[in-house]
Design goal:
2 copies of one chain form a homodimer.
Chain A (H helix, E strand, L loop, with lengths): L11 E8 L9 H19 L3 E4 L3 E4 L2 E13 L3 E11 L16 H5 L5 H20 L3 H11 L6 E5 L4 E9 L5 E5 L4 E4 L3 E5 L1
Helix pairs in contact in A: 1-3, 1-4
Chain lengths: 201, 201
C-alpha cells in the first residue's frame, strides 16, 4: 500500500510476532484487534495516558497517531498457516518529519516525560499473551469487549475512504470479523472491512 | 491439513499459477472458484465427459474425484500480496492406491480413451485467462453463474464436516465469498465457509 513508518534508533519500539493461530483466514483481523487491545492497555498502564484504538489498526493519543499495527498472513482457503503481526510505537520520539508532524505524537510528548521502552515492551507482551490465550480458547468476545471500551470510533461520525468508495456515517460497532458497522445518513448499516478512517466532529 | 495428492509421472497434470489479484483476503475463494470453472469447462470440452464441481475445490466425474484445487495466499488485512493456485488433474491414470481406489477416477477411465494432456492444459489455461480477466474486471457474477451451472451440490442434500461441527441439509446456493448456503432440517439457512462435503442421495 506504499505505507511507511519512521523509526529513528532507540526512540521507539518496532516489533514483529509470528503466530500460528487456529483461525480461518477471514478471522485474521482478530489478531490485529488483540494486538491493539494489548498495546493500548500497556501504554495506558505504563505511560499513564488516555490511549485509544482507531479502527482498524492505529493507536491514538489526543487524536494523534502514537502506534500502528500491521498484520500479514500466509493461508490456504480454510486455515491460516502463520501470521506475522508487527507493531510500531513512538515512545520517546520528539521530532517527526514534516509530512507527519501534525498527525503523529509519542508517549513522551503526550505524557510530558521519558517513558521506559522496556516497561512498555514487557507489559505489552504480557497483555498480548493473556489475550492471545483467550483468542485461542475461543473467547474472542472478551477481547472484543475490551476493544469496544478502548475505541475512539464507536458512536462517532466517521468518513471511510476505501479503494473504490467513500462512506460517511456513525460508527455503531465492530463485529467479530473486524468489520466496522457504519450507519449511513440514508439509514442503512454498512459493514466495512477495510479503509482509511477519519473522525468527523 | 495433512492432505496428499498422488501424482505418478506423465499420467496427470500438476500445475501452480502465481497471481496478484486486486482482491481482499476474504475474496480469495473466488480464485479457487475461477480455477474450478476453467478446469471443468476444459475437461468437458477436451475429454467430452460430464465433469462437475464439488464445493469447495474438487472436480468430479460420475461422483468420483478427477481433479483437486488448492489455493494459498500471502496477504495483509486489507489486500492480497499474492496467491498460488495449484491444480492436479488425473488424466491418463489407470491405477490408484488402495486408499483412494473407490473415490478417484481419471479422464481416461471416465472417457474410455487416452486424453491429450497438452490439449487439456492449453484449454484450461485459455479458459482460466478469460475468466481471470472477468474477475479482475469486477465481473465475478459471470464466473459465479458458470460455477452454479457446473455444480453437483446445488439443490442436493449434503453433509458438511467442519473442524468443530457437522451440518446436514440442502445446498441452496454459493455466494460471492465462496460460502455454501445450506438449508438445514430446522429450516435455518447456514453460511458454510469451509469443510469436507459428502453428497447424500
Amino acid at each position: 500500500m506504499g505505507r511507511t513508518w519512521i523509526s529513528p534508533p532507540r526512540e521507539g519500539i518496532w516489533l514483529s510476532i509470528i503466530l500460528r493461530p487456529s483461525l480461518e483466514p477471514y478471522e485474521a483481523p482478530r489478531i490485529t484487534m488483540t494486538c491493539a487491545v494489548a498495546a493500548a492497555k500497556a501504554i495506558r498502564k505504563v505511560a499513564g495516558i488516555d490511549c485509544r484504538i482507531k479502527w482498524p489498526n492505529d493507536l491514538l493519543v489526543e487524536g494523534k497517531k502514537v502506534a500502528g499495527i500491521l498484520t500479514e498472513m500466509s493461508a490456504d482457503m480454510d486455515s491460516i498457516n502463520f501470521v506475522v503481526t508487527g507493531i510500531g510505537i513512538n515512545v520517546n520520539n520528539t521530532d517527526f518529519p514534516a509530512e507527519i508532524k501534525e498527525t503523529a505524537t509519542s508517549l513522551k510528548l503526550a505524557s510530558g516525560k521519558n517513558v521506559d521502552r522496556l516497561k512498555i515492551l514487557t507489559e505489552f507482551l504480557s497483555q498480548f499473551e493473556g489475550f492471545y490465550r483467550d483468542l485461542e480458547n475461543g473467547d474472542f468476545e472478551k477481547i472484543l469487549g475490551e476493544w469496544r471500551e478502548l475505541s475512539c470510533n464507536l458512536g462517532k461520525r466517521v468518513r471511510i475512504i476505501g479503494r473504490n468508495s467513500e462512506l460517511e456515517g456513525i460508527a455503531l460497532d465492530v463485529d467479530s470479523d473486524g468489520a466496522l458497522l457504519v450507519k449511513t445518513d440514508g439509514g442503512t448499516v454498512e459493514r466495512v472491512l477495510s479503509g482509511d478512517v477519519s473522525l468527523r466532529e
